[in-house]
Write a structure and sequence with these properties.
Blueprint: H1 2-20, E1 26-27, H2 32-44, E2 54-58, E3 68-71, E4 79-82, H3 84-89, H4 92-106, H5 133-138, H6 140-149, H7 154-159
Parallel strand pairs: 1-2, 2-4
Antiparallel strand pairs: 3-4
Length: about 160
């Protein structure tokens, strides 16, 4: 008799699971070139990533010093919000670094890394503070390798 009772419960559980499933949402608007570059760089660094579920938009931040934020919620599409006033003042390298940092959170599920190299520059693109464009460009290969592989090659780390 228990065998027959468990089948209806199983069918109900399956129906509920299917009703909770959602289709991925990809709405990145004018940020599409950065998402494409993120995917290209992930492949180049041996960790291919395809972004299929992400929203990127301009919006307000919680504090005046924030430039961007990643919102992650269970079962929801990750959302990156960028402060438009700051974005408009950034150079291209800073824009890429900011978006790659936020996609590090929202796509790769990386957390912040606050360590600093012996030369006084952030050891990771996942540093909680914006890396100046000139520093990012000078060390771009290192930062991208570290972002996707989680650990940069030693020869690049010594150059930082």
């Amino acid at each position: 008799m228990n065998r027959f009772l468990s089948l209806p419960l199983l069918l109900i559980a399956l129906a509920l699971a299917q009703s909770c499933a959602r289709d991925p949402v990809l709405d990145v608007g004018e940020f599409a070139p950065y998402v494409e570059r993120f995917e290209t760089e992930s492949q180049r660094n041996g960790v291919p990533v395809q972004v299929t579920d992400l929203i990127i938009r301009f919006g307000q931040m919680l504090t005046p010093s924030e430039r961007g934020a990643c919102e992650l919620a269970s079962g929801a599409t990750p959302i990156i919000t960028i402060r438009q006033e700051t974005w408009e003042k950034m150079d291209e390298a800073e824009r890429e670094e900011l978006l790659f940092h936020e996609m590090g959170h929202c796509v790769l599920r990386r957390t912040h890394r606050s360590d600093i190299s012996t030369k006084g520059v952030p050891s990771s693109i996942m540093n909680p503070y914006l890396i100046r464009g000139s520093v990012y460009l000078k060390n771009q290969a290192y930062y991208l390798r570290e972002l996707f592989a989680g650990q940069a090659p030693e020869d690049l780390a010594r150059g930082l």
